[in-house]
Design a protein that fits this description.
The complex is a heterodimer of chains A (797) and B (167). Chain A is built from 21 helices and 28 strands. In chain A, strands 3-5-1-12-9-10-11 form a seven-stranded mixed β-sheet. In chain A, strands 7-15-14-13-8 form a five-stranded mixed β-sheet, sandwiched between helices. In chain A, strands 18-26-27-28 form a four-stranded mixed β-sheet, sandwiched between helices. With 797 residues, chain A is of the alpha+beta class. By secondary structure, chain B is an alpha+beta fold. Chain B has two domains: 75 residues, Ubiquitin-like (UB roll) (Roll); 79 residues, [2Fe-2S]-binding domain (DNA polymerase, domain 1), CATH 1.10.150. A five-stranded mixed β-sheet of chain B has the order 2-1-5-3-4, sandwiched between helices. Classes of the chains: A alpha+beta (797), B alpha+beta (167). At the A-B interface, α1 and α18 of A face α2, α3, α4 and α5 of B.
């Protein structure tokens, strides 16, 4: 008999399975784990941005209470411990490889940013380890620092790495220079623009943590860590840093309290505690305090860009030229090099038919924290550039900002669309998302709202961003050819248990995205198993065969597709078993959400009938079909996926204070097929909050000596509830054409589309003040200065 | 070492602590109540909020020795003995007001205190301002604000259940 269950499949806003754990204090984060005999680590960190280490005196520290061991770079060098590697090699314009300096686990002779680790103290308690670290005496020869990209490229600049006097990591380009130059030569209008993409500090709410644990009886090392991709950490740390084979190294990333990219990378603390745990033969726990998070988690963005857009008389885009400098910080973090190249410059066509594009990107070393992927990674930088440039072009050519976008949009009938910067978009409908967002935000009624605000003495502005992004990264062969040192497939295992419950092993990792629910819905939809009976296992290299983790909005597009492939195999095998049990031909077996039927008859078997037969094979064609019902699939994506959409921001500025208030925000996104609308909406709202944070509040600030000024939550402005307004979210779906689910990804669209919408709104609000651009973040001080420096025309009248 | 005697979630504990031990360290490390989290060093994020004698307090800025004789409630002590969730917990789930879950315990504890202090009800703006001491990096607060409004209605008897309040 068929069992009727509520629909929990694709498209249902199923409430999240993981929430009961998190809401009752039973979440299991790295710092919640305690191993028997556990000790505690504290890292002594450099207070200088750039210095030579003359000597380290450990005598007093070693005599402190509770101290078990203290290690420095010398100890690691003696053990032939390598540096943490960079995962993507970029080539210069001339074909030569990028400069790739070593990144030692503990400093070797020199420190290169404030926070660079100099020594590791292991003690019985955390306060003891911290007290002992304070007793270490380091004799520093302080050097001048290259605190930003200007300083690093000035004549006579200090070299962050002695053998790279230019401080240039690479000088890379993409696109056709000659064709682009020709387009500019024939252009009616050329709009020139320079902008900064402000440096951000990710600030996931859970600080990073790592526990090293070594079992001498089996020679097995275990690392518990706050990671978005435990298998990647195992591969990088085992093969490149500590020389431990995968078979002897287990990496566990349990519940992780937010990542936003910052927990992708292999950090030195992970290698240090794993190595040291075996040295002292005791488990070692390290948990960052927030100050360490600020000065050691990889930062995001930090670009300086000059761009030029060529247009004809009617406003048709003819060509785009871009020169970008991207800050790498002091060392190359795991995927740092790919962000301003293949995740940025390849996006410069946006959703427009710009026929020719040429971009040059110079990556620069500075005495600052390494910079790497942060929610959106390259695509927010590209989108901010394009969408500001289009607004400026509209204003300077006198063409309406909506009309100029519509005129240049890639039309729905042009897909698949090949851009001049390598990508081929598979699907999209930028006209519909634009129309929907204009309607939802009451674009037509804006001038009345502006007039009303003016009566209250406020400046009201509206801003639009029509964006496209590329995620679900990407065919392994393609990224390999571009310099990636890893494949980017994903792994899914579907294990149907004898009595019909299902365990899924996935190589993706959930750190807020709700995979335990969304991925279970895929199984429910296909196999008809209630979501409650589907368990999603992730984050443990001892349980999951392999995986590349979660970033770049890839979990459904790549990880979900692997699950679909594995479920295809389950269904194929189950049909053969069903055919045997019902004495029918396998070709006559139909399957729909949990029920196998002999076509045209009322003979049926449930998935549980089949699984039970598979594990209790009494009446079973055992010579032809192996027992058991478990399948593994690896899925390699055929292309990126291309979400897109339209964000509209409305702001009000208080003239007396320069405070910018968000009054309305509308997002209409095409993320492909939506599995759980509630979760998609939440992802977009969260991404938009981070984008508004970038646009209005957040700025990482170093002083000229390389000291991190914005080094705490008292100095770095995190968006709070009262900084934000309700965000209206809607979706408009065009399906991805090359993955089996038709999904595109929703994790980053909010942070990608929103910053230019907000700044376009701020500039619009200031339209009477002769302002062409406002750099992010648009703080009250900045806006107040603009208002008071540019005597308003209306005041002068 | 000083001895502290306090009640946590209805159970009395007597614990020897260093005088510098913080309440959050006592809860997490001595009592293994790891639902209360530490997210910053500067009392900015609110992940550590618990109730002391019914009032929301940042346990990362409270010395354990200050809590001698106090009644402390943590996120682990909110649900009824039979597992029935507090209306605030239920509302957070119903409205998808959490993602990674790290800020959630402190957010829930703060929200309950906020609602209890305003029997007259809270506007959306007042809820946003009332969350001044709690940071969330995942949700953008949109759904947290909705969840608190729904829980407030139930806690003040304006609606019977969270599900009924759901839109």
């Amino acid at each position: 008999m068929d069992t009727i269950i509520p629909f929990e499949g694709i498209g249902a806003s199923v409430r999240r399975k993981e929430d009961l754990r998190f809401l009752s204090g039973r979440g299991h984060y790295t710092d919640d784990i305690n191993r028997p005999g556990q000790t505690y680590a504290w890292f002594l960190r450099s207070p200088h941005a750039h210095a030579r280490i003359r000597a380290i005196d450990l005598a007093a520290a070693r005599a402190m209470p509770g101290v078990i061991a203290i290690f420095t770079g010398e100890d690691m060098a003696a053990d032939k411990i390598g540096g943490v590697p960079c995962g993507w090699q970029i080539h210069n314009k001339d074909g030569s490889p990028m400069a790739e300096p070593p990144h030692p686990v503990l400093a070797q002779g020199k420190v290169r940013f404030v926070g660079d680790a100099v020594a590791l103290v292991v003690a019985t308690t955390r306060p003891q380890a911290r007290d002992a670290a304070e007793a270490i005496i380091v004799d520093y020869d302080v050097l001048p620092a290259a605190a930003d990209m200007h300083q690093a490229q000035a004549p006579g600049a200090p070299a962050v790495h002695d053998d790279i006097p230019s401080n240039i990591c690479y000088d890379w380009h993409i696109g056709d220079k000659a064709t682009t130059d020709a387009a500019f030569a024939n252009a009616k209008h050329v709009v020139k623009f320079e902008l900064v993409n402000n440096r951000l500090i990710p600030n996931a709410m859970e600080p990073r943590a790592a526990i090293g644990d070594y079992d001498p009886t089996t020679d097995e090392h275990t690392l518990y860590t706050t990671s978005q991709n435990p298998h990647v950490i195992r591969l990088l740390m085992g093969a490149f840093v500590l020389n431990i084979p995968e078979s002897k190294l287990r990496v566990v990333a349990p519940d992780v309290g937010g990542g936003f990219g910052s927990k992708i990378f292999h950090y030195i603390e992970e290698a240090a505690v794993t190595w040291a745990a075996a040295k002292v033969n005791l488990p070692i726990k390290w948990t960052a305090d927030r100050t360490e998070s600020f000065m050691t988690d990889a930062h995001g963005r930090d670009h300086i860009t000059q761009a030029e857009l060529a247009l004809d008389e009617e406003g048709t885009f003819l060509g785009l030229r871009v020169v970008t400098q991207a800050n790498m910080g002091a060392y190359l973090s795991t995927f740092a090099t790919s962000v301003p190249t293949y995740l940025y410059a390849t996006l410069l066509a946006g959703c427009y038919q710009t026929p020719t594009i040429y971009a040059q990107v110079k990556a620069v070393f500075t005495n600052t924290v390494p910079v790497d992927a942060y929610r959106g990674a390259g695509r927010p930088e590209a989108t901010f550039l394009i969408e500001r440039l289009v607004d400026v072009a509209a204003r300077e050519t006198g063409i309406d900002k909506i009309a100029i976008r519509r005129k240049n949009f890639i039309r729905p009938d042009q897909f698949p669309y090949q851009t001049p910067v390598a990508l081929q978009y598979d699907s999209g409908d930028y006209f519909s998302t634009l129309d929907m967002a204009m309607k939802a935000s009451d674009w037509a009624g804006f001038e009345a709202r502006r007039a009303e605000a003016a009566k209250q003495g406020k400046l009201r502005g509206i801003g639009i961003s029509t964006y496209l992004e590329a995620c679900g990264i990407a065919p392994s062969a393609v990224v390999g050819a571009l310099g990636a040192r890893a494949g980017l497939y994903e792994v899914g295992v579907i294990r149907v248990h004898p009595t019909g419950s299902v365990t899924v092993l996935t190589g993706t990792h959930s750190h807020g995205q709700g995979h335990e629910t969304t991925l279970a819905q895929l199984v429910s939809d296909r196999l008809g198993v209630p979501v409650a009976n589907v368990d999603i296992v992730h984050g443990d290299t001892a349980k999951v065969p392999f995986g590349m983790g979660t970033y770049g909005s890839r979990s459904l597009a790549v990880g979900g597709s692997a699950m679909v492939k594995a479920m295809d195999k389950i269904v194929a095998k189950a049909k053969r078993i069903a055919a045997h049990l019902m004495e029918a031909d396998v070709a006559d077996i139909e399957f729909d959400r949990g029920t196998f039927r002999v076509a045209g008859t009322d003979k049926t078997k449930s998935l549980t009938d089949i699984s039970l037969a598979a594990y209790v094979p009494h009446n079973y064609p055992i010579e032809e079909i192996e027992p058991g019902l478990e399948e593994t699939a690896f899925y390699d994506p055929k292309n990126f996926t291309y979400p897109g959409g339209c964000h509209i921001a409305e702001v009000e500025i208080e003239i007396e204070t320069g405070i910018v208030s968000m009054v309305n925000f509308t997002a209409v996104d095409d993320v492909g097929r939506v599995i759980n609308p509630m979760i998609v909406e939440g992802q977009v709202q969260g991404g938009v909050a981070q984008g508004i944070g970038q646009a209005l509040l957040e700025a990482c600030v170093y002083d000229a000596q390389g000291q991190l000024i914005s080094g705490s939550m008292m100095d770095y402005t995190m968006p709070r509830a009262d900084d934000l307004a309700p965000v209206s979210v809607a979706t408009h779906t065009t399906l991805c054409t090359h993955n089996p689910l038709g999904v595109k990804g929703c994790g980053e669209v909010g942070a990608i589309g929103s910053p230019p919408a907000v700044i376009n709104a701020v500039v619009d609000a200031l339209r009477d003040y002769g302002v062409r651009h406002v750099e992010m973040p648009a703080t009250p001080a900045k806006i107040w200065s603009i208002i008071h420096a540019n005597a308003p025309r209306m005041a002068a009248e | 070492m000083p001895q502290v005697t306090l009640t946590v979630n209805g159970k009395t504990h007597s614990v020897a602590v260093e005088s510098r031990t913080l309440l959050v360290e006592l809860l997490r490390e001595k009592l293994r109540l790891t639902g209360t989290h530490v997210g910053c060093d500067t009392s900015q994020c609110g992940a550590c909020v618990v109730h002391i004698n019914g009032e929301s307090v940042k346990s990362c800025t409270t010395l354990a020795v200050m809590c001698d004789g106090a009644a402390v409630t943590t996120i682990e002590g909110l649900a009824a003995a039979d597992g029935t969730l507090h209306p605030m917990q239920e509302a957070f789930r119903e409205y998808h007001a959490l993602q990674c879950g790290f800020c959630t315990p402190g957010m829930v504890m703060s929200a309950i205190d906020l609602v209890q202090k305003h029997p007259e009800g809270l506007s959306e703006r007042e809820i946003r301002e009332g969350l001044e001491g709690n940071l969330c990096r995942c949700t953008g607060y949109h759904n947290i604000v909705k969840a608190i409004a729904a829980a407030a209605d139930v806690m003040h008897g304006k609606r019977e259940t969270i599900a009924a309040a759901a839109e």
